[in-house]
Amino acid sequence: MIVSPRRTTTTGFTLVEIVVTVLIMGLMLTGITRLLTAVRTSRDLVHNIQEQQLAGPAILDLLERDLRGVFITSMPLKSHLRVMDNVRAGLDADRIDFVATTDSLIWFGGDDRQVRSDICEVGYCLRTNPDDSDFLEMYRREGFGVDEDAFEGGSYVLVHDHITGFNVEIYSEDGPDADPLEEWGMNSTDIDTIGLPASLRISLEIELQPRLLRETQGHMRQKQKFLYTRVIRLPESLRLAQKDIPRYAIPRAQSEAAAGEEGSEEGDMEVGGAGGSGGRGAGGRGGGARTAPDGKVIDGTSAVNSDRVGGGN
Question: Is the pTM above the cut of 0.70?
Answer without folding.
Answer: no
